[in-house]
Amino acid sequence: MSEKVSVATVWLDGCSGCHMSIFDMDERLIELAEHVEFVYTPLVDRKDYPEHVDIALVEGAVSSEDDLNKIRKIREHTTTLIALGDCAVAGNIPTMRNPFGTDAILETGYIETATAGQQVPDSIIPRLLPVVRPIHEIVPVDIFMQGCPPSADVIYFVITELLAGRKPKLNDKTRPGA
Amino acid sequence: MPVRSRVKTFTMDGQDVSGHESETILEIARQNDIDIPTLCQLDGLSIIGACRLCLVEVVGWNKLVPACATYVEEGMEVVTNSERLQNYRRMIIEMLFAEGNHVCSVCVSNGNCSLQYLATKLGMDYVRYPYLNPDRTVDMSHERFVMDHNRCILCTRCVRVCDEIEGAHTWDVEGRGYKSHLITDLDIPWGDSRTCTSCGKCMNVCPTGAIVEKGKPAGEMIKRREFLGYLTKMRGVNNNE
Ligand code: SF4
Ligand code: FES
Fold this sequence. Notes:
A: alpha/beta; two-stranded antiparallel ribbon; 7 strands
């Protein structure tokens, strides 16, 4: 068990589409499970990020204070950090709020268009940052996997290349937006 | 008196090539199947050398030159694809991504965009420059077309096709530097323009999803540029001269 490569998958500000692509590896997940252990994912009931993770696949942009704390912690405790998908790599759809500013979108979402209980939440859910950023603008990223979402084939390719001790070459396999 | 030859012989990536003095490095490269990336250049439109993607090295020249806007010379040694050039080209593409709001995943031109195509081709895996996320507008006032300034890279292909081929000159560029943006007529909504003929040429030559047809779902906007070749051929015009 302990020789297995530890893998974490993390969901920041994304739509979970990248995680759907991970599931789309289908039976290849069973094959991977012989070599890797998924130690932390949105589906593993574990609150804290492990002390050491070999590979982390991080979906989503850095959008809230919670995202910011998480990504710093992940970087600190991870060997290979992979930005998974366009939101993680480039900000993508979450950054569409940046030109307007966070206050303006909260105002629209929670006050102007709300029919009941018009107020911007200030507890329980994490506070949004003034601007949304792609991961590499916060912490160093080792591998960039573009795509919205990247296909299961690409994710499988990256993990198996890393397992084989190689740095995956992705350019002919991914592009922004697809 | 020796007769001055108008045919120039020179080398490109070590290969012997020749071209007429009225031809550009880019034209000779294409005749010899040497691929130089371009963005603002489009056959049939005048040359402006604005995007700088086609920069090449000429041995002994102290600066890089745009292949689309540099005429061939006797004995020149052109290098089209050094590591330095590849690096600069990728930088240009990255800066274009950082400067606008190109959210490919929700663009009607996703999969049919020259900027996106070049990003992949030139090996961009992420953008090294901070995204500016500028506050830009979308003009939906025209009955058939949309102008999305978020996706405009200021190549001015639309400006040139409208002026040089359609003869309307509805489009132009206003502002300088970072503030540059396209306008219709004297900066009025496109739909109110009295010069626009609604021909759609600007939409078809636009390399990105900046000018598109209304009502297209994401990824389904395919531009048709064949008309430009036919029109310029039939009219016998060559805007490059
Ligand atoms: S609208 Fe399109 S064709 Fe016109 S300058 Fe912008 S990117 Fe170029
Ligand atoms: S294609 Fe030559 S400068 Fe744009």
